[in-house]
Amino acid sequence: MKQWLSRQDAIISRLLSRECDMRAVARCHECGQKAPQCVDCIVKDHQHLPFHWIDHWNGTFFERVGLAELGHIIHLGHGNAPCPNLPTNPSPAYFVIAHTNGVHRCRIQYCHCANRDEQVYQLITAALWPATLDRPESGFTFDVLKLWHLEWDISHMSAQDFYRILQHLTDNGSPLNIENRYRDLLSTSRMWRHFTMVKRSGRHHGIVLPHRDPQAITVPYIHRMILGCDGNHSLHKKTKKEDPNDVSLAVNQGYFVNHEHMSEYLKESYEDEETLETCSGFRVLRSLRPGKFRFLSLSGLIGTWCRHVLFRHGGTVDIQTGER
């Protein structure tokens, strides 16, 4: 009898397991009404769903954790399967990845085949945009970049507010404890939008469209053009110290005129020329109060578009000091 008593805890666990599997200590609400599973099974089932949040039983309550804390590794280059040429003791890279449901701490294992891509290209192929080119440690999924682009375009949400939402989705109780990748979001989303435009333009495939510069990435005009032009004097840019690393990604490929050509054009002065004013509606400059354009490097812009409100390639220009 004493021998049975010495095994009491183990026997009770087995008896309870007949009523409820005690090994099922993990569950995923993002997978719908799926039953709880053991850690190994839930990690295996999420081989292609690395950004689901898991409720894991810690002995007292179900704690929300990421899949990486349960041993999940994102493998690149082989359809989320481990590379057959991994070293004996592979060391995954630790990443902070922002997805539509929050900010995740992940472990990523690169491909080690002889003909493998660079690490940056492996990440992009897996729909993960790295924040840097050299030894990236953080990035954003394509899904969250698409969502941020729509939020900014439709609701005009700021990047800071958008990233704060991701922090709250990760941990609504302590959002400030989540890694701040706000500045990475600014640069990464800009690069993603640019390369997406280049991809959709068809330029990479050598597609030549009528009435469009071969290097342009804008919408072409196939038939007759009926153009209009107007200016906006409220889009000001204050004079400030410029970032030398903030360069244009599509010089003379989009809607704006080449700035170098425009600078040469503005070197000529037209202040002494007599301007013919045939309509009082065009005397905007004279009616403006003195000093309005003080401390401004740009006082607005002028754009050209067709009857379908599609802007003309190379038809938008910045206004310098007033209406010049």
What is the topological layout?
Blueprint: H1 2-6, H2 8-19, E1 26-27, H3 39-45, E2 53-57, E3 62-66, E4 74-75, E5 93-99, E6 102-109, H4 119-125, E7 128-130, E8 138-141, H5 142-155, H6 159-170, H7 182-201, E9 227-232, E10 237-238, H8 259-266, H9 284-287, E11 296-298, E12 300-306, E13 317-319
Parallel strand pairs: 4-6, 5-8
Antiparallel strand pairs: 1-2, 2-3, 5-6, 7-8, 9-12, 10-11, 12-13
Radius of gyration: 29 Å
Rounded to the nearest angstrom, the distance between the terminal CA atoms is 101 Å
The total beta strand count reads 13
Order of helices and strands: HHEHEEEEEHEEHHHEEHHEEE
* Overall pLDDT metric: 83
Oligomer: single chain
Structure description:
With 324 residues, this protein is of the alpha+beta class. It is built from nine helices and 13 strands. The protein has helices at 2-6, 8-19, 39-45, 119-125, 142-155, 159-170, 182-201, 259-266, 284-287; strands at 26-27, 53-57, 62-66, 74-75, 93-99, 102-109, 128-130, 138-141, 227-232, 237-238, 296-298, 300-306, 317-319. A hairpin with a 7-residue loop joins strand 7 and strand 8.
